Structures
1.
Amino acid sequence: MIMEGDPFVLIEGMTIAGLAVGATQGYIYLRIEYPHAKIALNQAIDAAYARGYLGENIQNSGKTFHLEVRSGAGAYICGEETSLLESLEGKRGLVRFKPPLPAIVGLFGKPTIVNNVISLASVPIILDKGGEYYRDYGMGRSRGTLPIQIAGNIKHPGLFEAAFGITLREILYTYGGGSASGRPIRAVQVGGPLGAYVHEGQFDTPLDYEAFAAMQAVLGHGGIVVHDDTSNMADMARYAMEFCVEESCGKCTPCRIGSTRGVEVIDKIVNNIEKDKNTVLLRDLCNTMTFGSLCAMGGMTPFPVLSALNHFPEDFGLSKDKA
Ligand code: SF4
């Protein structure tokens, strides 16, 4: 939304960040699936160069900052900062061991800061209007605004920006207009494909990083996918494991092997094969993935799986006490 709608705010934020850390080269790493963003960004970068806001001696300041867009081939794992750097270097997107942190040894061995669009796009307004202005939006330690994407089974899907603190219920019913099917909303997945499933009893939780962490969920990038009461949450748990199978970079065992075993174990549970034993095994596997994975891909896959199992055991053919 930001890259397509206001690419200059990202360019300005990156230029300020570059000048702040003494960097003279910036890259916008963009998945190939966003052709409109690529066009908008490249046009804006060309305009910025033409007006002296990028390049050598920016606005006669003696400062230099160059910026270019690089297309990624569409790997989810390249959102992880070290595999993003590998990909930028022209290699396969494989997660690096840390340390060293990218701020010490990053792109082509040089110190590199890696930030997401929302962080960098927030910089110009903070410098323009001051930290207090920005702080006045939001709640708790979650300050400012978040672009929220609402999709799935919802009457009014789309993108909108709101201050932290708005509740899920307001988003779902005031902005989203309820489910598209007209049926009750049963669960929403917040924060992307590795986000937890949140049930109806949690819809009054405000959008706040700490409040979500307290209920073993994540806010992530603010993506919300809505399910009505016809969705089977065991299928969704299986989908999360399958997603990890597809998108795992393969570097570490808990994620590479664990996700494949996870699909198999969920299949056994729903097919009544040693149900109790396999439920214990699934929890044990999720624990290994959470604490043994090298990055958040394997580490967070248990979020949707366990939230589905904990909140909707009946979809796995389990009673609450057996889940
Ligand atoms: S958790 Fe998965 S994606 Fe991350 S390093 Fe391990 S194998 Fe790669």
2.
Amino acid sequence: MKADLFDQRRLLELQAVDTTLSQLGQRRRKLDADPAFAAANQRLSALTDKAANLGGDLADLDRDIERVEREVELVTKRAENDRARMASGAATAKELEGLQSELESLARRQGTLEDDQLELMERREALETELNETRRQVEEARQVLADAEADRGRRLGEIDTETAEATSTREALAINIPDRLVELYERIHAKQPIAAAELVGRRCGSCRIEKSPADMIPIKSAPIDEVLRCEECGCVLIRTELPQSKPSTLASEDELKKYQ
Ligand SMILES: [Zn+2]
């Protein structure tokens, strides 16, 4: 394929924009997979679970406390009834003995229940403190995540803006390059990220492989408007060390010496 060297060189500008677009894509993927974001999400989820569990434990404990309170009420009421019966003077001696023994037993039971109550209240207090602290941490984690989300949104917005700019630059560039050359570039670009690279000395700017002096012979002897391809990586090899105003003829010996 033949194309004006000036047009060929425009492929390098197109390549630069495509490289920018590819970097923008990488930045976007990196943001999507940001470990800090995942960690903030995970922390919030773990703390929310912990708060829910503590809330459940607290509800269980409240039920236990209520149960003990009801039992204390029953024991108190039973003791009151027993004492009333004893004070009524209607009870027989045997009954009085029985009532006395029951009152002693009820007093022991009440003592145990009150110990339980105290222990439960202490546990409740500790649990409530832990739950309040966990709820505070949940709010904190929620804020960290919201900040991370806002930051990601802002960065994605920047990427969107830069992508739109690069895309319009690309369109403007492609319009000014002959269609056949753009088509060739696009075909190569579909297969590999670098479709056009500069020939620097004997080195391909894409694969970085240095051409042997023998490989340089056809390159050196190629007409200036010949579209060259790197035999190693397949990209369009652009000669930038030749003068831009060079007409579409064989390069002079002096100019070709620069490649050696
Ligand atoms: Zn190459």
3.
Amino acid sequence: MTLPRSSYRAVVVGGGIIGLYTAYDLARAGAGPILVLERGFLSSGASGRNGGGVRQQWETRGTIRLARESVEAYRRFGRDFGYNLWFRQSGYLFLAESEVELARLRTVHDVVTAEGLPARLLDAGGVAELVPGLAPGAAIGGSYLASDGVLYPFPAVWGVYEAARSLGVDVALGVEALGLRVEGTRVTGLVTSEGAVATTTVVNAAGGWSGEFSRRAGLEVPNVATRHEILATESLKPFLDPMVVRASDGLYFSQTMRGEIVGGRTVGHAPGVGPGVPSSPGFLTGMARALTGLLPRLGSVRVLRAWSGYYDDTPDGFPVIGEDPRLPGFVHANGFGGHGFMLAPAAGRRVARAVLGEPTELDPAVFGPGRFLVARRDAPAERLGLG
Ligand SMILES: Cc1cc2nc3c(=O)[nH]c(=O)nc-3n(C[C@H](O)[C@H](O)[C@H](O)COP(=O)(O)OP(=O)(O)OC[C@H]3O[C@@H](n4cnc5c(N)ncnc54)[C@H](O)[C@@H]3O)c2cc1C
């Protein structure tokens, strides 16, 4: 496709949920012409390949606040965007198998409740009530928050895409961002597979490929892409309300409104982006063993499909939001690991503010790209990157 204009106020690289929310918020702020470049199709990245989990139970206040704001936004999504996400606030339950894991969940619980969210610590009986058919002795306790939940990612991507376009954002599908144009030390444009465009701001929202794109811009970043697998079973009569996550191995699963069990494990393949996003027999057998060990009733259930997608991980578990101090005009909106969907509405808003030079209300030592450029002792970290 030919690009509609030769000059834009900002160009967003990546048409996943983060890039689209950013573009939408920029357009709502009246920022001027905005272009989103997506080299694949809508939802071809992680935004069309995830488990739809939305939780506010985190280890750090910074993440909890972004998640909480995003939950509010997803609750309003139908009214704001005219699409039904089937957002079901039926809770997230973290299971502990040992006293050490339970102590960790207790710490999380303290931070979450200090933020005003009514998370509950459960004993083995409380867990068994929430997960009918749980194998005896499978958990000694857990942490539960009823306002966490699950949604369908596709209407979210589509709704924000339609809303951004209705506000005048150009979304170019099948067009790749190849590299930057820089004059002096500032961004002046972008070279794409459809020619060059002039712009003073480029937003790197390229998900698992954000490291690759930053490096194309001449910037060394610590982002690492890791492929993760996930599956969906045939539909079962509804029996499970919460998303269940096991602390020891990151097993996570929920039952969708169609009755399927959808889940995976938070263990990725070797770092790096390869060609394609395949599924492996090893994942299927490992997942089957983990699921049926926990819930023996799933022993005869058939898997309907399996797929995979890329996490974009950072060393400290926080996303990267803000302008790169080494290159004015280059704004990061990446590093969301396995939880970008649940942070997207709040994160997109912050990225848009960063583009406009407005305060983001984010601590740069926690979320800013400059944090990786200085040696730090006792740097904060978000380690609850499970499920
Ligand atoms: C198996 C799995 C399960 C997950 N489960 C959850 C969950 O339950 N809850 C949750 O919140 N999150 C989950 N996640 C994570 C979540 O999906 C991601 O964090 C989120 O979708 C990231 O959105 P994004 O827009 O940053 O990236 P993406 O959706 O990956 O979008 C980036 C886009 O950039 C495009 N692109 C890359 N390079 C270029 C270029 N040079 N030019 C043009 N376009 C380019 C890609 O084609 C891609 O479409 C999961 C992820 C996976 C893989």
4.
Amino acid sequence: MLEIRFHGRGGQGAVTSAQLFAQAAIMEGKYAQAFPDFGPERRGAPVAAFCRIDEQPIYLRTKINEPDIVVVLDPSLLQTVNVAAGMKEQGVLVINSAKKPHHFMGQELSQVATINATQVALAILKRPITNTVLLGALAKITTVVGVESLIDAIERQFSAKIAALNVKALQRAVAETLVLNKDDCTPAELEGCSGLADIATAVAAEDLPKADSEYLWGELEPGCVITDAGNAKSFRTGDWRSFSPVLNKKRCIKCGICWIYCPDIAYREDEEGFYIADLDYCKGCGICAQECPVGAIHLEMEEEAGVI
Ligand code: SF4
Ligand code: SF4
């Protein structure tokens, strides 16, 4: 089984990366799963997503704590997140960075791939959404999923115009990603490598805010309980959604199942008793459409959607 952990920031498409990679694997006849690590999912917040691929059915449902491959969508994450945590011995790092792979290579890694994904994304997508660029880098270093399958998955996921841009970004990453194999390094070269472990150690040793510090909890009221959408009402999470749930009121039987299943508690009951998704918080995951017993919800690509 191949286990991949994606680290990104809310809005960069880490979850979509995992889903697209899994989708491509499934289209090749493999078994795959992809899921996010839920947390404070506001735009810019560190997020993680996981992808497992195997030739056999996958029954494991846990987070990936010992990944074979770590994909980092935003280099600034190295300052706050130990992306190397639990990484398997001789793992692989794929990272959005303008630096050469040597910068990250260390004894614990077998391969490092770097691509200035932000620059590529801005040039092609006009937005710093780096996920499909990193998928191109990932496709370059692994044969588990082919580039053509990834392109198929992208074309299934997005509208034609958006898919074309993302395919272009992916193909450019395949061409431009720099790859370094540890076996190809001379001892002298390895000596000059910084090593991801060193970076991770530096992060762990940083004087980060403690849980009981004023910095973290100072804005919360005493006894505060988070009960509203998106973990907290002020964290509007609807601005990184590609699809919106659309309700067919003629079919709806007002059972409330969509409200129950929505992971973001984004549904509100209107004055007529219909459940309406609050687009300030809906992330377009489609679970409500999947769970509705009468097929009263479908997902539509947002008209105003940008690239992802
Ligand atoms: S699950 Fe479907 S039928 Fe039930 S309230 Fe929601 S939209 Fe209506
Ligand atoms: S698509 Fe449906 S289930 Fe998913 S976040 Fe939006 S309202 Fe909730």
